[in-house]
Amino acid sequence: MKLAIGVDDTDSRKGMCTTYVAALLAERLRRLGEVYELRLVRLNPNIPWKTRGNGAVAILAEVEDVDAALELAVRTVEELAETGEEGTDPGIVACEASRSERLRRFYDRALHGVVSLEEAERIAELERCWTHRLKTGRGVIGALAAIGAELSAHTYELIAYRRRENWSKPRQVESASVVEMDRATKHDTFNNLDPETGRVLITPRSPCPVLYGIRAWRREVLERAMRMVRAGEAIERYAVFKTNQGTDAHLMEKDMAAVEPFTSVIVKGRVAAEPRTIRGGHVIFTIEDGEAALDCAAYEPTGSFRGVVRMLRKGDVVRAFGGVRERRRLTINLEKLEILELAEQWVHANPLCPCCGRSMESAGKDKGYRCRSCGERADSKIRRRVERSLAKGLYCVPPRAMRHLTRPCAA
Ligand code: ATP
To answer: What spacing in Å lies between the alpha carbon of 49 and ligand 1's midpoint?
Structure first.
């Protein structure tokens, strides 16, 4: 039978990673049959109770002995999950791996909105899925969504894991080798490095079993890329996941008035006033469309992206991309910004001499303007158009501040 097993919520801020549980479980399932896909599915990035990147996993396998497969899944999750930590509430779901519209719609809702555990359980029951909960079992939500995920647009991630004795130690990955790997595979891999700071992005910062993860548009390049990365510690195992990372799957085009908190949106609007920089270096501006208004924020970690935002002027037309938070008013936490129209900017300046073309000087209070060399005169200031230094186009936050789901601008 073709079986899909979804798992979620096994990790805490102190350790573990649900992808590691999947990698180990996949190896164990291979003793019972064939594992033909590992999925890493990122769900709504605006969920407040996520540990980090709101990732859930699914394993697709062809097995004869379903009971043995489910037993392995429970044993592996019980062995590895951080159930001693508050907020770690693992869930396992297993269904026959067939395309179901209802499951696909559930994935959509878990990607774009907030769903309840009751809803997940009801759908699991309707779909005749088997579920297993540890503690509150909230992970059933992510596990079911991972099974339902439609990855028509997808990328891949190879995740290399560390030996247990190294889990809490600093990671030994040679930066120069990541630079070389990035250069050699640059059309096929993404977000290996942050160009602005040179920071290596393939290594996480949490005390989890992941040594590094290489993201790619094409699966074929990943093993070659892995061989290029030099690590000063042993790789215990690795696994390649099919994912929705880097696909913009979370973003939905919305009218401004229909924007809701905890969703990720693309909204078109006109800049209502000059951007302002607030304490902490965050840059905020407001957009409006005649019916509603929204704040957009480029936070301090978005680095040079804030420079683009600061150059916006009242009247510019933009598309804002990002997750919605409720601050003073609804605020889009910007992931990208597309500048569609630039408003004309005018200044009042001294008139130009019709003879020599130079700027005239004031001839004294209420006496108009005069050219010092030619003696030409003029009564008043002129309005001059200012060239905008900002170009139309799409701008992204730098990779170090990018969400897993965001498609990089250069792609
Ligand atoms: P990591 O990425 O390191 O695996 P995480 O950020 O994925 O960690 P989890 O520990 O998986 O965080 O916690 C997320 C929890 O939120 C899970 O229990 C999952 O079932 C639940 N969840 C995911 N998406 C939604 C959603 N759209 N609505 C409600 N709950 C959700």
So the answer is: 7
Ligand 1 neighbourhood includes 405 CB (under 6 angstroms): no
- Pair 89, 135: CB distance under 8 Å: yes
Q: Do strands 55-63 and 282-288 pair parallel, antiparallel, or not at all (unpaired)?
A: unpaired
pLDDT digits (tens, 9 = 90+) for 165-208: 999 899 999 999 999 999 999 999 999 999 999 999 999 998 99
Using pLDDT thresholds of 50, 70 and 90, give the confidence band for residue 282.
very high
Q: What is the pLDDT of residues 359-409, one digit of tens each?
A: 999 999 999 999 999 999 999 999 989 999 999 999 999 999 999 999 999
- Enumerate the β-bridge partners of residue 324: 332
Query: Is residue 266 packed enough to be buried (19+ CB in 10 Å), middle (13-18) or exposed (0-12)?
Result: middle
Cα–Cα dist 194/201, whole Å: 7
- What residues contact 67, with CB distance under 8 A and at least 6 apart? none
- 44 CB under 6 A from ligand 1? yes
- Would strands 330-341 and 317-326 be described as parallel, antiparallel, or unpaired? antiparallel
The response to whether residue 47 sits with its C-beta less than 6 Å from ligand 1 reads yes
Q: How far apart are CA 64 and CA 69, in angstroms?
A: 9
pTM: predicted TM-score of the whole model, two decimal places: 0.93
Query: What is the residue type of 190?
Result: F
Query: What are the structure tokens assigned to 272, written together?
Result: 């209502």
Q: Whose CA is nearest to atom 28 of ligand 1?
A: 114
- Residue 129, both tokens: 């899925």
- Quote the DSSP letter at residue 193: B
Task: Please tell me if the CB atom of residue 50 comes closer than 6 angstroms to any atom of ligand 1.
Answer: yes
Angle at 12 between CA 9 and CA 18, to 5 degrees: 45
CB 207 within 8 A of CB 168: yes
Quote the Cα angle for 210-213-216, to 5°: 160
